[in-house]
C-alpha cells in the first residue's frame, strides 16, 4: 500500500503534477529517478523493469509500479522530472 500511495500522490491528472517535493524521505525522489531510468531503457530497447532482478522486496514493488506505468504512459516520469524544481528533506534529530 505504501508505494501505491506514494505513486498516487504524484498523479494530479492530465498536465498536472508536483513542482516541489517536501519531506518525502527520499522515496518519491527514488520513484521518479527510477521511473525516468526505466522510461529511457524502454524507449531504447522496449524492455520493461523486471521486479525479479532484485532480492529487495521494497525495490521489487517500485519496479512493478514503474512497469505498470510504462503500459499506460511511457513518458510519465520524464514529465514529472521536467516539472519538478526542487526537493527538500526535513529531518529533526535530538
UniProtKB/TrEMBL annotation:
One of its GO terms (molecular function) is adenosylhomocysteinase activity. The keyword Hydrolase applies. Pfam families: AdoHcyase. InterPro entries: Adenosylhomocyst_ase-like_sf (IPR042172), Adenosylhomocysteinase-like (IPR000043). One of its GO terms (biological process) is S-adenosylmethionine cycle. One of its GO terms (cellular component) is cytosol. This is Adenosylhomocysteinase. It comes from Pinus pinaster. The lineage of its organism: Eukaryota, Viridiplantae, Streptophyta, Embryophyta, Tracheophyta. The gene is shh.
Amino acid at each position: 500500500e505504501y508505494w501505491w500511495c506514494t505513486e498516487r500522490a504524484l498523479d494530479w491528472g492530465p498536465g498536472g503534477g508536483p513542482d516541489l517535493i517536501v519531506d518525502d524521505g527520499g522515496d518519491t525522489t527514488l520513484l521518479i529517478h527510477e521511473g525516468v531510468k526505466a522510461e529511457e531503457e524502454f524507449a531504447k530497447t522496449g524492455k520493461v523493469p523486471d521486479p525479479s532482478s532484485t532480492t529487495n522486496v521494497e525495490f521489487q514493488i517500485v519496479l512493478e509500479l514503474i512497469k505498470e506505468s510504462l503500459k499506460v504512459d511511457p513518458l510519465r516520469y520524464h514529465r514529472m522530472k521536467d516539472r519538478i524544481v526542487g526537493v527538500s528533506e526535513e529531518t529533526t534529530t535530538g
